[in-house]
Design a protein that fits this description.
Blueprint (H helix, E strand, L loop, with lengths): L10 H11 L5 H10 L4 E4 L1 H6 L12 E7 L2 E6 L2
Antiparallel strand pairs: 1-3, 2-3
Length: 80
């Protein structure tokens, strides 16, 4: 896995793909997109939940597991 913003040239494309992913309730689509992007984990807090309400859900998609939580911030790991 790599940091989402590790390649500045790909940032806009990656952000566009994530926005599409976070707009779906379908776990098959969302999980496949996250895997295609080589996303290993998501960090979600109030700013992300405000922009993408699906991330405010306890378990946005079945492929994510809660690995860490402190206050309103969570780390969600993509299951293999």
């Amino acid at each position: 896995a790599r940091l989402f913003y590790s390649s500045p040239a790909d940032f806009d494309r990656n952000l566009s793909e994530l926005k599409e992913t976070f707009a779906t309730d379908d776990p098959a689509i969302a999980c496949a997109r996250l895997r295609d992007m080589n996303i290993a984990a998501l960090v979600a807090g109030p700013p992300e939940a405000a922009d993408f309400p699906i991330l405010a859900r306890p378990a946005p998609w079945s492929c994510l597991s809660l690995e860490f939580q402190r206050g309103s911030y969570r780390v969600l790991r993509l299951r293999p």
